[in-house]
Amino acid sequence: MTPMEQTGQTVRIRVEGYGEVTARAGERLVLALERGGVDILHRCGGVARCTTCRVSFSEGEPDAMTVAEHDKLTEKGLLGQARLSCQMECADGMAVTPLQTARTTGLEPGKTPAETIEPEPQWTTRPGASAQG
What domains can you pick out in the chain, each with its CATH number? Predict the structure, then answer.
């Protein structure tokens, strides 16, 4: 049994241009992507300050979003267009496209994000989320 299988339910995430990534349910998406071979940027270290870890969803976009993510996406004019992979947890059925990678930008990814979402998450609902939850 792999360490991931020992710690909880595994989920599969489809990543445009990279294939499928296996993650733990509840793992930070940015970390699962990086571990799965995606050279996603996280220039601020995964604390919702820079938007370089942004992804777009074709399936499985979570309705929950942190207030920090909402505020940063609003500030940058990206709310409703992208999500911050550092501010969400992996769930089965996600299909994402990384919007900024080391390969496409020539930038270094940045400091490795912590295992848990930072800053301490306060949750809200994303615009356009289903009223049914």
Answer: 8-99 (3.10.20.30)
